[in-house]
Amino acid sequence: MSDTSLLFVLGVGFVLGLKHATDPDHIVAVTTFVGKERHLGRACAIGLCWGLGHTLALSLAGFVVIGLRIPMSMWLAERLELAVAAMLVILGARLIASVHTKWHEHHDHFNWTQCGLKPLAVGIVHGAAGSAALTLLVISTISSPAQGVLYIMIFGLGSMIGMLAVSVLIACPVQWAGERAGAAIRPIQTTTGVLSCLCGLYLANSILRTLH
User: Which are the contacts of 100, defined by CB distance < 8 A and separation ≥ 6?
Assistant: First the structure.
């Protein structure tokens, strides 16, 4: 593959990564975190940590599948998708359970668990679940293992930036509502939690139907 063609393919990978961040299950999962934050900086950290976890999982899967030529079984891919579904239900239920917390009771200091580690773990699960389809696509279009892993990393970078943008778009109206109409926060959080649960149940039902 020529340098020009490689740059074009990597550019496409970056754009697809941006688009990948807007998948409904990704947005719903991140919203369960961002919907509880009143500080834009913490919301941005959540989006970046999710994207970092997503990229780490994709890069590791790419190294194993493309670099070491160890295929990912369909059985594992389906179970990873079920893990995503279960995670969405858990995140939604947790958010609904925490709705009674008042908006002004959130701590002003940065919480590494809430804003960093948890979104990172959620991103890792999402990245692992999506790695099977992505690695198959890369194998079919890029012959060099090194270029394939690089493509996946560029794709992951695009997903990080895309989720950062999504987090900002979600956080801004939530922050505005919290400052000017504090009573609206609880219905927003409750709705987000319910949507997360429904999304997880729908995803789980879709996967289970294919297993029979």
Answer: none
Structure tokens that stand for 26 in this block: 């990704």
Tokens representing residue 144 in the block? 């060099």
Asked if 23 contacts 125 with a C-beta cutoff of 8 angstroms, the reply is no
Which residues 6+ apart lie within 8 Å of 59 measured at CB? 149, 152, 153, 156
**The pair of three-digit structure tokens given for residue 184, joined into one six-digit string:** 């609206």
Q: Who's near 189: CB < 8 A, 6+ residues apart?
A: 35, 36, 95, 96, 98, 99
Between CA 178 and CA 184 the distance in angstroms is 7
Cα–Cα distance between 116 and 23 in angstroms, integer?
A: 21
- pTM score, whole prediction: 0.84
What gap in Å lies between CA 77 and CA 128, rounded to an integer?
8
CB-based contact 55:127 (threshold 8 Å): yes
Model confidence pLDDT, tens digit, residues 118-152:
999 999 999 999 887 888 778 777 778 888 888 88
* Chain segment 152-183, per-residue pLDDT in tens: 889 999 999 999 999 999 888 877 766 666 66
Residue 107 is classified by DSSP as -
Half-sphere exposure of 205 (CA within 13 A, CB side): 7
- Report which of 137, 142, 133, 153 is spatially closest to residue 54, judged by C-alpha positions: 153
pLDDT, one tens digit per residue, over 15-26 is 999 999 999 999
**At 24, phi and psi to the nearest 5?**
-55, -45
